[in-house]
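Listing S7. Sequence submitted for prediction.
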Amino acid sequence: MLTAVAPESARDFGRAIIMPNLVPPVVTAAQAAAYRSRILAALPTGSAFQPLMTLYLTEQTDPEDLAAAHASGLVTAAKLYPAGATTNSASGVQDFDKVQPVLEKMADIGMPMCVHGEVTDADIDIFDREAVFIDRILDPLRRRVPGLKVVMEHITTIEGAAYAQSDPGQLAATITTHHLIINRNHILAGGIRPHYYCLPVAKRETHRLALLDAATSGNPCYFLGTDSAPHTDDAKESACGCAGVFSATNTMSCLAEVFEAAGALDRLEGFTALFGPQFYGLAPNTRTITLTRGDPVQYANYIDTGAGPVTLFNPGFDLHWTVSS
């Protein structure tokens, strides 16, 4: 799987924040180093792609190991998953008080925390879990650790977009390609379409439009996080299918189409290439890509992997933009 999908990310992107929710999860510096080596080995010869590693926060995370990994340059951020919120999150946090010392250490050293922002309570509707997480968990947590830099990963709601701009420089949010394009009707209306199923799940059209306004606004608190997640077709098309959308291959074509339709092509570079590094304290990439508009681009429906086929995100409209160099 890694050999098949890593080149898809490396083709158009110079680097990426690498999620740690493997089996077993990446919880130590040694595991992050090993995973980084596997990614580099899977890249095409001559690729300059840079994997920016993260550690999976657990209630047993050692603050000193985490700080040492960050100081060495090996690890860029840590990721907080509420237990049971998404793919391979069983090792995530149940008692947020138990990670307070780790979060305080991260605030002290300026290490950002990426967060999957959903509660997992069975009595909370799945479409409300992001908004409830902000009110019940994230805002109180940030008040307890005011120096902590936080990236709200893959926001999906009006509430998420509004909260993300409440503390410039300390709080930011990523938005995925697919959440700019699909709403919950794409998953459920006229038949179940499992390749659009992801977590956080896509919401109403009003929420999608709020995300679109945020992404194209030019506000640096919003930047691209594809959350490109490869699952084989048999794992998606099953009685209990996996959550995840694979979009690495055609993301730039999709985004150029979306930003053009919004009259915001001049803001595409900031969203995809400048605002993320700015928040993480990294220099912008020195290399560039060029997008060219022409006849509709044809992408394969899926990519072949050693584990089976992985279906590529289908935006449901023609893509006229392609990365030409």
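Caption to Listing S7: primary sequence and predicted structure tokens for the chain studied. The two ends are 26 Å apart (CA to CA). The chain has a mean pLDDT of 96.
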